[in-house]
Amino acid sequence: MRSGDARREILHAIRTNLESSPPDRLSAPASSPPVPLSVPERGDVVKHFTEQLAAVGAQCTTVRSETEAAAALARILADAGARRVVGSDAPLVQRILAAVGNDIVIDRLERLSRDELFACDAGVTTAQWGIADTGTLVLESARERSRLLSLVPPIHVAVLSVRCICESLGDALARLSVASHAITFITGPSRTSDIELTLVVGVHGPQTVHVLLMEGP
Amino acid sequence: MTFERDARTALADGQLRGALRQATTLFGERRRAALATVPDWEGARDRARAIKDETLEHLDRYLEEFAANAERAGACVHWARDAAAACDIIGGIAERRGARTVVKSKSMASEEIHLNAALARRGIEAVETDLGEYIVQLAGETPSHIVVPAIHKTKAQIAALFADKLGIAPSDDVATLAAAARDALRRRFAEADLGISGVNFAVAETGTILILENEGNARMTTSLPHTHVALMGIEKVIPRFADLDVFLQLLPRSGTGQVLTAYQSLITGTKRRAEDEGPEELHIVLLDNGRSRMLASRVTRQALACIRCGACLNACPVYRQIGGHAYGSVYPGPIGAVLSPQLFGLARSAALPYASSLCGACRDVCPVKIDIPALLLHLRAQVVAEGVAVGKGHLRERLAFWIYTAVMVRPRLFAWLMRAVRSLRIMPPLGAWTKWRDLRPLAPRSFREQWRAGLRDQRGPDA
Lengths: 217, 463
Description:
The complex is a heterodimer of chains A (217) and B (463). Chain A is α/β, with parallel strands linked by helices.
């Protein structure tokens, strides 16, 4: 009940104070202008996206099939010396992981305890959208369980279709739905400059973000 | 009145001033470079300010809309009139959930209400997880910069601190130090019962809260514990989801000079199905604590448009010399000098509106075009009107103006005094001003004397 009182009090204080300073002009409509639906050449957008990925310190490999994706993933994991890998529940991720070689331990997220998750070397997810202007990946919780796998292991590998690359932040926001309780924008690896302004990569989140960019159908 | 004393202490600290110069210059340069990537920066600033003005004009309506939509999505919304109420609400949630350890990501509002101390009184330990905040907390200090809280500490000091508190071998390698903090904090994330975060923007239309960061600690804080508490000032609300576009263009560029920070978390209520990832409970605490009062004037209301980027700190010639601690408030720099007196009372922060040369650099860099110099003048007028003492300079200043008035209204006294000064052919020392400058000597004869001696009769050519 006290909470209801506080709500009434705060709203009352806001209204009273606003009334004591009447508007000095007609409040102009301040809505954001509609996002222009630009239709740029797809090739340009993809090129722009990969350039921005590099600029923010993410890696990118273009693949044309699931088989190529599995081969690229195996190389990434081997190069990093990753032993334990966890995939999300996305069918595409499961299929790609199934095709990766045998010398890697593959876990399923739902079978892991929190401690085991913290001990994993790499997480594999998909990304629902890419943003070309900023080199950003967008992950939606309603589509896949990717929230922890894209955060806790030191390596995050994200599979993204070239058809899902938006040009700008505004384009991406227009496509998103809050049916997802958590939407995460990821731009490069985790970073800090808190000690003497020296850049350190991978402080709480992943040190490596690798995008497998899927071309083709 | 400790501002003057603390400012003097800071000015005498060469290491602090070097670090401040480096940080504020670097962020200023990065900011300028980042602006160039926005085709219409001025337009973006105007649009953002218009959105903020519109929101504040109808803040009651947008807050109700936000609360209703957040609750519909599964969040629990709390309203806190002041700091004590907010601490009670959060402490109550922590106790009900049986939390012993709380992980926190950066939240200025939580520092404003002294949340950590309030939780400690209930026997609950709050661990700061942003690297800079963690360093400052381990050292038992307070942040000195909004974006780089531990800018006042060298890596050697941090190495000694970590060796002492975390038991690691001393190292002057920054990556090693960061890794030590990561390991120590991972254990805290794994055991924490409750996560507390701030909020950068709250969308009325959808009930979404958005949190920006670079390290990933806010993502950990908001996704690992079973309960997430988000604390936000009531001014953080914006009307529409699409409005995020312009604010996400402005905030990272103005704050760190990044096009976008590494992570944005957009959280709308709680998880929809049991097997989803994320906390079971989301509590959003709406904090007033003096903010609604600021709506009463169009001048003071502007400060509620602030998006806490820190650009005005980096641009301010006063902040660049003295840093954040001297302001004696969780909100330092130019924006702190206008927020602190309004939030915490003029009597406690009366010196702050004077901690500025009114050069206007803060207004020029502000992404939402807050006229900070106008606000500072407004507050100075209030300090005078309310007769709040401003420090030891105040009495001397009043005495000087009393003498000045006494002389200026008595022409004969004025003439006699000026004759005396002229005949001595010296200028009085005026403290720090004449320490480095010479005042121009007075003319041998005053204008009045020249006028009486015949200047009156000389006519110009066109008369």
